[in-house]
C-alpha cells in the first residue's frame, strides 16, 4: 500500500475526529480458542479478571508532578487478600517460568492497580523478588478478540516478541518496557542530538508503515513506548506498540497511520524537518520488505490466524465497507474491493506487500 509520506499528506486530516468514541469488546470464538491452544496461548490460570473486581476500595495514583495517572491502587478484604496474592504469584510463574511452586516463597505482590481509562480496564500487578528487590509488572484484562488478534500479529509481523496467555474471558500480558511516547515527546525529544533525531525519525517512518500495513489503529503517543538500547557508539531507538484494542476495527484508513493522529504532531514535524523524501521512501520500502519476509517465514501460522479473523466479526459492516474501498482507492488492488470482512482486508494487505516484494526483488527464487 502506497501513501506518500509528505508534508501535504501529513498535515491534511491530523486534527480530524477519526475514531469511534467507544469500541465494543468482541468474544473469543471457538476457532480462535483452538488456534490459541495449538500455539500454547490458551492455558488454565488460577485467577480471573472478575476475581480482581472484588476490591473493597482504591486510592488515586499521581505521578511525580502531581498529575492524576488515571490508575488507582486497590485494596482487598483481609480474608481474600492472601488467596488473591497467592493466585497472582502462580500467574507470574506460569507467564515467566515453568508454573511450579518452588519460587513462590520468594515472590511478593507489592501492588494491584486498576486503570479507569480505556477499553480494557486493566489491572496492573507489581511482582517483586524479595531476595534482590527486582520486580516486574503483569497485566490482567478482560479478553477481547480484537486485542488478541493485535497481540498475535505484533508477535508475528513486528521485530518484537509478545508473551500473553488467555483463559476464557481473561487475558494476561507481560509488561512492555520503555518510555511512554507522550512523556518522551514532551520531556526528552527536544534534548536529543541531531543524530538521535535522525534515528528517531527513521523509526517513526517504519513504525508508521508497519502499523498501516497490519491495520493496527490508534497509535497515539500514549499507546506506544520508546525503547532505547545502548550500542557501542550510539543509542538505538525503537517504537513499540502497547495498546492493541484497535486492531482492524475502524473504517478510515488514516486511523492506521500514526502520522495523522494529532498527539504525534511533534514527532511528525521533526520527521519532516529531518528526513528528505527520498530517505522516507527508502525506509518505507525497507519496512515493507521486512514485513513481507516475516509474513512469508510465518506463513503457516499467519494463515491460520487470518483464517480465524475471516470467520470472525470484529467490526461493523459499515466500517468494513469504508476501509476496503479506502484501501482500494489507494492501491487499485481489486482484492480489497472484493473483501467481505476485516480478515479478508488484512489478508489482501499482506498479500499485496508480499506480492510486490517478490515481483520487485530480482534475487527471489520463484
Explain what this protein looks like in three dimensions.
This protein has 366 residues and is of the alpha+beta class. It has two domains: 7-25 and 179-360, Phosphatidylinositol 3-kinase Catalytic Subunit, Chain A, Domain 5, CATH 1.10.1070; 41-142, no CATH class. The protein is 43% helix and 17% strand. The protein contains 13 helices and ten strands. It has helices at 7-11, 30-38, 49-52, 78-96, 145-157, 181-187, 194-213, 265-274, 277-297, 299-310, 317-331, 334-337, 342-360; strands at 57-62, 68-75, 107-115, 123-129, 135-142, 164-167, 170-174, 179-180, 224-230, 235-241. The strands form two sheets. It has a seven-stranded antiparallel sheet. Strands 8-9-10 form a three-stranded antiparallel sheet. Strand 9 and strand 10 (235-241) form a beta hairpin. Helix 5 packs antiparallel against helix 10 (299-310), helix 7 (194-213) crosses helix 9 (277-297) and helix 10 (299-310) runs antiparallel to helix 13 (342-360). It is globular. The relative contact order is 0.13. Residues 1-8 and 10-16 have low confidence and may be disordered.
Amino acid at each position: 500500500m502506497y501513501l506518500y509520506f509528505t508534508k501535504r499528506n501529513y498535515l491534511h486530516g491530523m486534527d480530524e475526529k477519526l475514531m469511534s468514541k467507544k469500541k465494543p469488546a468482541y468474544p473469543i470464538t471457538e476457532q480462535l480458542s483452538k488456534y490459541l491452544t495449538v500455539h500454547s496461548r490458551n492455558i488454565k490460570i488460577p485467577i480471573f479478571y472478575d476475581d480482581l473486581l472484588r476490591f473493597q476500595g482504591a486510592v488515586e495514583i499521581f505521578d511525580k508532578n502531581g498529575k492524576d495517572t488515571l490508575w488507582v491502587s486497590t485494596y482487598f478484604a483481609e480474608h481474600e487478600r492472601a488467596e488473591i496474592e497467592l493466585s497472582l504469584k502462580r500467574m507470574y510463574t506460569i507467564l515467566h517460568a515453568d508454573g511450579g511452586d518452588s519460587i513462590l516463597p520468594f515472590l511478593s505482590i507489592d501492588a494491584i492497580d486498576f486503570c479507569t481509562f480505556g477499553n480494557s480496564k486493566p489491572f496492573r500487578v507489581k511482582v517483586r523478588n524479595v531476595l534482590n528487590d527486582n520486580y516486574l509488572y503483569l497485566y490482567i484484562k478482560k479478553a477481547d478478540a480484537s486485542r488478541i488478534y493485535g497481540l498475535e500479529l505484533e508477535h508475528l509481523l513486528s521485530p518484537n516478541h509478545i508473551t500473553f496467555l488467555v483463559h476464557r474471558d481473561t487475558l494476561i500480558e507481560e509488561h512492555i518496557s520503555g518510555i511512554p511516547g507522550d512523556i518522551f515527546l514532551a520531556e526528552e525529544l527536544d534534548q536529543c542530538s541531531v543524530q538521535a533525531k535522525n534515528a528517531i525519525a527513521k523509526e517513526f517512518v517504519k513504525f508508521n508503515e508497519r502499523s498501516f500495513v497490519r491495520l493496527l489503529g490508534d497509535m497515539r503517543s500514549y499507546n506506544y513506548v520508546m525503547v532505547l538500547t545502548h550500542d557501542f557508539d550510539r543509542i538505538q531507538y525503537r517504537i513499540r506498540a502497547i495498546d492493541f484494542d484497535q486492531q482492524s476495527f475502524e473504517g478510515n484508513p488514516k486511523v492506521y497511520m500514526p502520522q495523522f493522529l494529532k498527539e504525534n504532531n511533534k514527532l511528525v514535524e521533526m520527521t519532516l524537518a529531518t528526513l528528505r523524501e527520498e530517505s522516507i521512501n527508502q525506509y518505507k520500502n525497507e519496512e515493507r520488505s521486512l514485513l513481507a519476509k516475516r509474513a512469508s517465514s510465518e506463513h503457516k501460522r499467519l494463515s491460520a490466524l487470518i483464517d480465524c479473523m475471516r470467520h470472525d466479526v470484529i467490526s461493523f459492516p459499515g466500517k468494513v465497507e469504508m476501509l476496503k474501498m479506502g484501501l482500494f482507492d489507494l492501491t487499485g488492488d481489486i482484492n480489497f474491493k472484493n473483501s467481505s470482512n476485516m480478515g479478508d482486508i488484512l489478508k489482501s494487505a499482506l498479500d499485496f506487500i508480499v506480492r510486490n516484494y517478490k515481483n520487485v526483488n530480482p534475487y527471489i527464487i520463484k
